[in-house]
Amino acid sequence: MLIDTHCHLASHQYDQLDANQRAELIKRAQAQGINQMITLGAHTSDWIKNLQWAEQYPNIVFAALGVHPNDAALEDSDWYERLDAIAQEFPLAAIGETGLDYFHSAPKGIDEKANKQIQWATLEKHFELAKKHKLNIVLHTRDRQGSASFDDTMAIAKQFAGVVRPVFHCFIGTGNQATQIFDELDGLVSFTGVVTFSNASNVADVARWCPLDKLMVETDSPYLSPVPLRGKQNEPSHMIHTAQFIANEKNISFDKFADQTTKTAQDFFRLSPIK
Ligand SMILES: [Zn+2]
Ligand SMILES: [Zn+2]
């Protein structure tokens, strides 16, 4: 079996699905051996929808909640108290998605420097919540050029090293950066369908090199559908192509790849195994 460790089932792009179509989406994933999935909340307004998915599909869908860096400056000021209360009541799989995003411009009316400072403070508060509730954290970093968002995220994550383990999701960085994540934070990386793109051979190179017990796989659906479904709306079932691609790159059996990455994800997100 496999686990889609990062999807957004509460995305508005899935809103048109009725109850039957939701059940079909889950069945299509299961038909590919993707028996568990983590749905990520990105802002307070999608948290309840993510929790509903998890409640409707116990031991199949798990929720992790956070504030995406792109939304940090516009988020309700009480997000921290609300997430703190939810984490006491519901068994979350992790805190996130959160992180630093220097790729997108600041929201209208907010200057770039202030936007960065809000992102830093928001990220730090996510780490505090993860520490408080003994959860791990799902991080997003993105730069237009250079690696400032990665470096700044590392600096904040290091304050919590040994306490909160991070996964750097949709990893497109270098082997050197991955090594920092593994050695300095006991963290992980996870790969999306980007690894299958013909114009991202550097990501495939890093996936081929990456120690098998340090990586997870994800869709980030509804975005980033892998080859050969690139351009289509992504969903958890599509992850089979990403998993097969990486196993193939690493020249190991698909079963070995699936077993190890599933074990890594169940451990990281504290999921109970499915027999
Ligand atoms: Zn992300
Ligand atoms: Zn995401």
Shape descriptor reads globular
- For the record, the CATH architecture stands as Alpha-Beta Barrel
- Number of beta-strand segments: 8
What is the oligomeric state here?
A: single chain
> What's the average pLDDT?
97
Radius of gyration: 17 Å
Stretches where pLDDT is under 50 for at least 5 consecutive residues are: none
Distance between the termini: 10 Å
What number of domains? Answer: 1
Bound molecules: zinc ion
In DSSP terms (H or I, runs of 4 or more residues), the helix count works out at 9
Structure class: alpha/beta
What CATH calls the topology is: TIM Barrel
Beta-strand percentage range? 15-25%
Notes on the structure:
The protein is of the alpha/beta class and 275 residues long. It has one domain: Metal-dependent hydrolases (TIM Barrel, Alpha-Beta Barrel), CATH 3.20.20. It has nine helices and eight strands. Strands 1-2-3-4-5-6-7-8 form an eight-stranded parallel beta sheet, with helices on both faces. Helix 5 (148-158) links the parallel strand 5 and strand 6 (166-168). The protein starts with a strand and ends in a 7-residue tail after the last helix. The structure holds zinc ion (2 copies). The site of one zinc ion has 5 residues, from loops.
Quick rundown:
This protein is an alpha/beta fold and 275 residues long.
Key attributes of the depicted protein:
single chain, 275 residues, alpha/beta, TIM Barrel, 9 helices, binds zinc ion
